[in-house]
Design goal:
Oligomer: heterodimer
Number of helices of chain A: 21
Strand order of the largest sheet of chain B: 2-3-1-4-5-6
Distance between the termini of chain B: 22 Å
Radius of gyration of chain B: 16 Å
Largest sheet of chain A: 7 strands, mixed
CATH topology of the largest domain in chain A: Rossmann fold
Number of strands of chain A: 23
CATH superfamily of chain B: Pyruvate-ferredoxin oxidoreductase, PFOR, domain III
CATH architecture of chain B: 3-Layer(aba) Sandwich
Structural class of chain B: alpha/beta
Number of domains of chain A: 4
Number of strands of chain B: 6
CATH architecture of the largest domain in chain A: 3-Layer(aba) Sandwich
Strand content of chain B: 15-25%
Helix content of chain A: 25-40%
Shape of chain A: globular
CATH topology of chain B: Pyruvate-ferredoxin Oxidoreductase, domain 3
CATH class of chain B: Alpha Beta
Strand content of chain A: 15-25%
Order of helices and strands of chain B: EHEEEHEHHEHHHH
CATH superfamily of the largest domain in chain A: Thiamin diphosphate (ThDP)-binding fold, Pyr/PP domains
Largest sheet of chain B: 6 strands, mixed
Strand order of the largest sheet of chain A: 3-2-4-5-7-6-12
Distance between the termini of chain A: 52 Å
Helix content of chain B: 25-40%
Largest interface: A-B, 51 and 53 residues
Number of helices of chain B: 8
Number of domains of chain B: 1
Structural class of chain A: alpha/beta
């Protein structure tokens, strides 16, 4: 039986087949669907942790206790989890630990396009890199084997184009259900208590393990040579391999399923068979540098760019320009002529909109954060002025306030981001006598990645009811005396509360509470515009809501797109936007 | 089912539209049809930030052996555009021989509704596509879907028209469709699919 699966679904399926029983992650495009899919298999435990560091620590705990464990995150999430990562390399684990890392070349939904292969090298652990969904399934099983054989965490690296592409996967027999009696926890302080004296003893173990992994890389079935012509020898891994196969169909290939450590003998074998070795890899010259260190002449980043993701068209154009294949040099695909752009924007009825509109009117300098609400930076709202990394807004505003800029400053952070890494900088405000204002946009869900529960939601990934943590109570507990909870649609109160907090000399916090319009679909009739009363002031267009359109002599509201939140009516100074009195009545 | 023996070549399908229009579901259905007809199938889609009303594209490829999940520039056999402006945005994938099935439906982008840019006329959109060599087929997808009671069915209407270009038996399309839509919407989706088959391809 075959089934079409995304790379992420196939990773989850592979994890299930490999007997992984504990999974923890934090949602982040393009990694999110791995943990969501994994959670649906029988007999597994899966959780959304508040951030990637906690997720990895949960998975490590499970692996310390002898279980097979999975941690999932996007590339920048591994930065957050880097602290446990580097030292779990020293301790190893008792069971198995697979870390799924999903990189995002071309920044489809990220703040940078870092190449996380460097993490495997820096932490001295193995990294596998599948090239399609079928390999993704297989490689998780191989990752578990490597983890148990070599006592090492293994990173399985995906990219957006693997995670979010779909192809045919072979279904396999269900894993046998094994009931294991709980064993006593293995106490082994020299291995697991990383005080300096122990850790010094563990570092040589890590170096020795790396040598063994490099030997394994020579013989593992995931690294292999595909014989071809003697002209070009292509080294590629991940989805780049697929592009290269289309561009160089007759070439000799070294397909690397293991991105780190790399197989020296196989690389030399390839080089001995061909006139020219070419590395096709997205982002940094990771494989290329290794080949160069072996003293083998190689073409790589002199031919293919180190910015953005590849496609077979891009690889073909670069290869032709470098004379590796025949073809017209400099031929660029014909792009469409100038068309109106269509950027993503806040949804109609999004409860973040009134807050950003208020901040725009108050001309505040807004230190922003990561989530849907980063779209508050887009015109016409244009009410966010920084976006750095998860949880950065609160530390950023505190630092800016130490410099004393002329503008009124504020941090704006979403609820999931707040639980992820906004709590420590919030405590920092109190602990260092800060006086900044923080607004938490609280819709009780992780909206951007598709409505995953978080510590404020009140239920777990597996559907268990749990306490929903109150941001207001948390802020008061750490020492905030000035805390207000507001509804974003009481716009007069929104303006007054924010102004009041701006004038305050103490640290303060506003929680703006309203559910995500895509999560709890509350649809009211769209308002109607009284064109006679409209003086075309443009206020309602400045809220950046897509159902509103400028027409000759006024504006219209598209009832198919409008959710009826009524915010446009509350910003109309002429009272020209009115609630619909009877369904279907009035003009639109 | 005509089976593997009849596979003559590859088919590349490009789905374009606006986040939330259902391009992912439609491209999943075409992938499923390909697999059931014995093709190797790959598909690529867009998640995350782009879904919030932004321009979206999905690639589906059928072939004897498919490597890349992306269509190469100039190689699309079919362009299924769920929105008119999004039909014109991706001409780099279009060339002589491409058939563009375009839903006659406009969703105004922000620069247009703020009065800063002009939405191209239907003629301009058609000229852009035919200029790139494509045949253009206009389909009243949204209009038919609204008649059936749900504008979200517009994509399935387009799939109905698409199916007329293929010899594969109708039940492969119908079964793939039923397999991927929620049970309570199956009848409605089948109706929308057949509404699409009434259009001249």
């Amino acid at each position: 039986m075959n089934k079409i699966m995304s790379g992420n679904e196939a990773i989850a399926y592979g994890a299930y087949l490999a007997g992984i029983k504990v999974g923890a992650g934090y949602p982040g495009t393009p990694s999110t669907e791995v943990m969501e899919s994994f959670s649906r298999y029988p007999g597994v435990y899966a959780e959304w942790s508040p951030n990637e560091k906690v997720a990895l620590e949960v998975a490590i705990g499970a692996a310390y206790a002898g279980g097979r464990a999975l941690a999932t995150m996007k590339h920048v999430g591994l930065n957050v989890a880097a602290d446990p990562l580097f030292t779990v390399s020293y301790t190893g684990i008792k069971g198995a630990l697979v870390i799924v890392d999903a990189d995002d070349p071309s920044l489809h939904s990220s703040q940078n396009e870092q190449d996380n292969r460097h993490y495997a090298k820096a932490a001295k652990i193995a990294m596998l890199e599948p090239a399609d969904s079928e390999e993704a399934k297989q490689f998780v099983k191989i990752a578990v084997e490597i983890s148990e054989t070599f006592d090492t965490p293994v990173i399985l690296r995906s990219t957006t184009r693997l995670s979010h592409s779909r192809c045919i996967v072979k279904l396999e027999d269900e894993p046998a259900a094994v009931e294991i009696e709980p064993a006593a926890y293995e106490r082994n302080a020299p291995k697991y208590v990383m005080v300096p004296a122990h850790a010094r003893q563990r570092h040589p173990v890590v170096e020795e393990r790396l040598k063994k992994l490099a030997e394994y890389a020579e013989t593992t079935p995931v690294n292999y040579i595909e014989p071809g012509s003697g002209d070009l020898g292509i080294i590629a891994s991940g989805v780049s391999y697929q592009y290269a196969k289309e561009v160089f169909p007759g070439a000799t290939f070294l397909k690397l399923g293991m991105a780190y450590p790399m197989p020296e003998k196989l690389i030399r074998d390839l080089a001995g068979r061909v006139k020219q070795v070419v590395v096709v890899e997205e982002l940094d010259p990771f494989i290329e540098e290794h080949v160069r260190l072996l003293g083998i002449p190689v073409k790589g980043k002199d031919v293919f760019p180190n910015i953005g993701e590849f496609s077979q068209g891009r690889v073909r154009r670069c290869a032709a320009a470098a004379g590796l294949i025949p073809g017209k040099i400099g031929a660029q695909p014909v792009q469409s002529q100038q068309l109106p752009v269509r950027p993503p924007m806040l949804c109609p009825g999004c409860a973040h909109r009134p807050i950003f509109y208020a901040l725009q009117r108050l001309r505040a300098a807004v230190f922003g954060d990561i989530g849907c609400y980063t779209l508050g930076a887009a015109p016409p709202l244009a009410a966010m002025h920084t976006c750095l990394c998860m949880g950065a807004s609160i530390g950023n505003v505190h630092g800016a306030d130490r410099v004393k800029v002329k503008d009124r400053t504020v941090a704006v952070i979403g609820d999931s981001t707040f639980f992820h890494s906004g709590i420590t900088p919030l405590i920092n405000l109190i602990a260092n006598g800060g006086n900044s204002t923080v607004i938490v946009l609280d819709n009780r869900i992780t909206a951007m990645t598709g409505h995953q529960p978080h510590p404020g939601t009140g239920r777990t990934l597996m559907g268990k009811k749990v306490p929903d943590i109150s941001i207001e109570a948390l802020a008061r507990a750490v020492g905030f005396n000035k805390v207000d909870v507001i509804s974003p649609y009481d716009f007069k109160n929104v303006l007054e509360t924010i102004k009041d907090h701006f004038q305050s000399r103490e640290p303060s916090l506003i929680v703006s509470q309203y559910p995500c319009v895509l999560n709890i679909r509350e649809r009211k009739p769209s308002p109607v515009v009284d064109q006679d009363a409209c003086n075309e002031c443009g206020n309602c267009l400045r809220i950046g809501c897509s159902p509103m359109a400028k027409v000759d002599g006024g504006v219209t509201i598209d009832p198919a797109l409008c959710t009826g939140c009524g915010f446009c009516a509350s910003v109309c100074g002429r009272g020209a936007i009115k609630a619909r009195t009877n369904e279907g009545g009035g003009e639109h | 089912m005509k089976g593997v023996a009849n596979i003559k070549r590859k088919y590349d399908f490009l789905f374009t539209g606006v986040g939330g229009q259902g391009t992912i579901l439609a491209s999943d259905i075409v992938s499923e049809v390909g697999m059931r007809c014995g093709y190797d199938v790959k598909k690529s889609e867009v998640h995350g930030m782009s879904q919030r009303g932004g321009a979206v594209e999905s690639h589906v490829r059928w072939g004897e052996k498919v490597y890349s999940p992306l269509i190469e520039e100039g190689e699309a056999d079919f362009l299924l555009a769920f929105e008119m402006l999004e039909a014109a945005r991706w001409t780099q994938f279009v060339s002589a021989g491409t058939v563009a099935l375009v839903n006659r439906h406009r969703i105004l982008p922000p620069t247009v509704y703020l009065g800063q840019a002009k939405y191209p006329e239907e003629k301009e959109i058609e000229d852009i596509l035919t200029g790139a060599g494509s045949k253009v087929v206009w389909i009243e997808g949204t209009a038919r879907a609204v008649e059936l009671g749900n504008p979200a069915l517009a994509g399935v209407v387009l799939l109905g028209t698409l199916s007329k270009y293929f010899d594969e038996p109708l039940d492969v399309w119908e079964n793939s469709l039923m397999n991927l839509v929620p049970e309570k919407f199956r009848d409605l989706n089948i109706k929308a699919f057949h509404a699409g088959r009434e259009f001249q391809g």
